[in-house]
Amino acid sequence: MGWKIPKRIKSLVLLNRDIVTTTGMLYPRESETREVRSLDGLWNFVKSDITNPTQGMRDKWYLDDLSRVRKTIPMPVPASYNDITTEHAIRDHVGTVWYDRKFFVPMSWSKNQRVWLRFGSVHYEAFVYVNGEMVVRHEMGHLPFEAEISQYVKYGQENRITVMCDNALIQTTIPQGKITELARDDGVSIVQTYTFDFFNYAGIHRSVHLYTTPSTYIEEIDFTTDLSKNNTVGFVTLAKVKIGGSVDNEAASNDLHIRVQLLNKEGIVVANTTSKSDMTAILEIKNVKPWWPYLMHHEPGYLYEMEIFLIDSNTEELQDVYRCKVGVRTLSWNNSSFMINGKPIYFRGFGRHEDSDIRGKGLDLALMTRDFNLLKWVGANAYRTSHYPYSEESMQFADENGIMIIDECPSVDTENYNQALLEKHKSAMEQLIHRDRNHASVVMWSIANEPRTGQLNAGSYFQYVANYTRQLDNTRPVTAAIAVNSADDKAARYLDIISFNRYNGWYSNPGRLDMITKRIIDEATTWHEKHNKPVIMSEYGADTVEGLHLLPSYVWSEEYQTELFSRHFRAFDILRKKSWFIGEFVWNFADFKTAQSVTRVGGNKKGVFTRSRQPKAVAHLLRKRYFALGREVDECTLIPSDLFTYITDGSSTRSSKHDSTDL
Questions:
Q1: How far is CA 524 from CA 227, 413, 538, 625, in A?
Q2: What's the rounded Cα separation, in Å, for the pair 227 and 289?
Q3: What's the pLDDT band for 144 if we cut at 50, 70, 90?
Q4: Among 435, 460, 432, CA closest to 445
Q5: What does the pLDDT read at residue 652?
Q6: Reported confidence tier of residue 663, pLDDT bands at 50, 70, 90
């Protein structure tokens, strides 16, 4: 915080140091022993002076209502603040902003309970105060953080929460950026620059919750699942149930145990067990219903509910209850395939963004629901959380709908590798895995997007990050979306699955549809031959202006996007005959906002859907392909009745009429 323009950081040696790890952070859920209250709504908002970002700290704005310091404006939470008003100064603000609001804490919460304050995400760095006292500081957008505030709140009275948010990105933040000073007509401007191709939205992006736990409570849950006997018997292994609160030593923990049970969708208990004091347990499910991806089974995304009861072993009194969803499935991979529940997977999906008009990257449940409806409409079975972790609510939605997730940390266009950056990168992966490790939908970890992997230290840097990721979770493969060519890349050797981004017919040879298919085949083959690992094309596409039609096809037209996709499909079908090519991901699911640029008319237009989530012409072509792949690869029998439009009754020629048999 504060404007010190960093010099280019170079380091000849990177050290694999330990980092501080996350504790707690269970998603807030009500139960017999817990209460949850939302602090979402309209907060008060103040923008700092761009040339004096630390003034609020120096003058201790957090000690009183912001309205007593400066004139405030209302600001919705959750939402990015950038596009809410009509002011350039707020949209393009660099540096700190302040939020505050009042809330009550009932007297009943003062008795034998703990009170917690939890943020789903603040971008990029947050300082949080309750009644003038700092309770937590967190760096890293897109990930949750929390603090116990029992000793800071006034029970039965009004309280104030104040948040300072700093959006500045420098060479040691994840993602990276640069702060520069540029001359303007009447002085000097502080300018934020970055190389990644999406807008650096900022603010309180996800929900804010107050919640309670008992004094002794369930703090963390970590479990894995397995299948046996031809997927008819399932196992849920609770590797860790960490107890927080008054249990400060081993002797005390011996006085507690857990009782665990699994319920099916009908609410019937299908497995239960009781732990010893080690708080571990294994549940066996006969006639299990495995978690399957969309279009691989008539009942995809099947979830059980796990109930965990913390019990005092001496009195048998209930101490705490927590519930979560469990999808029972196995993952495995080798040098030529990736499998779920023993069956090979062919990924077909998208890179996406959490992005919408007005709200920016703010959590929007209506938009999220629309997006998942479109994913299923188009026949996709997966997406990558490009280029940062998505909301916890979207991860839950993916679990429930059988959509596979390649879960990506916020590292994008990573360069200038240095020790401080490495430690923050490892922290980003640790926070992400801690949050998402129990989601059945998460099938792969992505440690970066388009890092500059030809640079000095890139090899050792990504070796450390990849190995640390496996140390945290060895049940999922590690990937990264690489844009450097295979001859120069130093990172792919440390990955389990190779993902590459390439824009043939767009950034490379724009307008040349005859320079796509062979180039894709050759590059994918080169990656596999060099590393002997499965390969995914993680990005391809072309910017397309909605409603622009040109014949013959021409760049930016809907016709060109359609033809470009078709040339990629030819390459993918040839590659699919080689078992090691395991997936295709379009860039992008929907149009999204970027920094202002002469190459971006209102943002990036590579979406199959518009920013308002309406289909471009190519969406219908892609839908036919994805459902055709579902039928061919996964033996899917779900064929939408509207997949083909009626043309003729076929009395003159059979080929005039299309139906599901043509898939």
A1: 33, 21, 11, 20
A2: 10
A3: very high
A4: 432
A5: 57
A6: low
pLDDT given at position 141: 94
pLDDT band for position 307 (cuts 50, 70, 90): very high
**Nearest alpha carbon to residue 364 among 83, 131, 153:** 83
Predicted TM-score of the model (pTM) = 0.94
DSSP 3-state assignment of 202?
A: coil
How far is residue 604's CA from residue 198's CA, in Å, rounded to a whole number? 8
Tokens representing residue 240 in the block: 């860790």
- Residue 30 among the catalytic residues: no
Which residues have CB under 8 Å from 240's CB, separation 6+? 220, 221, 222, 279, 280
Mean residue pLDDT across the chain: 94
Pick the catalytic residue from 146, 408, 423, 450. 450
How many CB atoms lie under 10 A from the CB of residue 109? 19
Nearest to 355 by CA among 515, 197, 520: 197
Sign of CA dihedral 42, 48, 53, 57: negative
Structure tokens at 376: 């299923």
Residue 659: band (very low, low, confident or very high) from pLDDT cuts 50, 70, 90: low
Cα dist from 586 to 104, 535, 567, 570, 639, whole Å: 47, 15, 13, 14, 22
Mean pLDDT to the nearest integer, 548-555: 98
Handedness of CA 585, 591, 592, 594 (dihedral sign): positive
Mean pLDDT, residues 585-597: 96
Assign 213 a pLDDT band (cuts: 50, 70, 90).
Answer: very high
CA–CA distance, 26 with 552 (Å, rounded to integer)? 55
- Report, in angstroms and rounded to the nearest whole number, the Rg of the chain calculated over CA atoms: 26
Peptide bond before residue 425 is cis, with ω within 30 degrees of 0: no
Secondary-structure percent of the chain, ordered helix, strand, coil, rounded to 5: 20, 30, 45
67-74 contacts at long range (C-beta below 8 A, 24 or more positions apart) = 70/46, 71/46, 72/44, 72/45, 72/46, 73/44, 73/45, 73/46, 74/42, 74/43, 74/44, 74/45
Please tell me the distance from the alpha carbon of residue 616 to that of residue 607, in angstroms, as a whole number: 8
Q: Could you give the angle at the alpha carbon of 582 between the alpha carbons of 405 and 292, nearest 5°?
A: 45
Q: How far apart, in whole angstroms, are the C-alpha atoms of residue 373 and residue 483?
A: 30
- How far is it, in rounded angstroms, from Cα 420 to Cα 36? 37
Q: Rounded to whole angstroms, how far apart are CA atoms 390 and 402?
A: 16
- Please tell me the least confidently modeled range out of 364-368, 530-534, 659-663: 659-663
Predicted local confidence at residue 54, as pLDDT = 93
What residues form DSSP beta bridges with 128?
Answer: 136, 163
